[in-house]
Amino acid sequence: FTSNLNVSFGPSGGTTVCDPATSRKTGTYTVNCTSTSNTNGQSTSVSFTARHSYTAKYNACSRPEPYSCNCRPYRQCEIYACDIWICEDYYGDVAKNCHYVPGGTCERNCSEGTKCDTCTRNVDCSYYSCPQGGILRGTTCYY
Known about the structure:
10 strands; three-stranded antiparallel sheet; 143 residues
């Protein structure tokens, strides 16, 4: 920090000592500096607050999320008992070679669509935060 201070005692110069002497690089803290003259022993002190950017905290997170899977077409009908005539040949509107089949099944009120199962997958919900304060930009916290 001493390189950021400009203290003058005249032509004799002096020494400057700061505590802490160098940046801690995280959070907010106070820096105390004292400059003392080499010739007459006069001194002056200055205190200032330093704040530095720091790496944001990574908060891991995963949560389950439902989604549609194994989709397939389906056809659903109301099935009822009925007697059936089966014809082997048609000539225009005339059926030929027909025979009667008792006890068959018929369909009515049919609906068609797609049927899917519900599956679950894990979704990444991880995020970064600034536990020592500051504004988050990407993965760094700035004051």
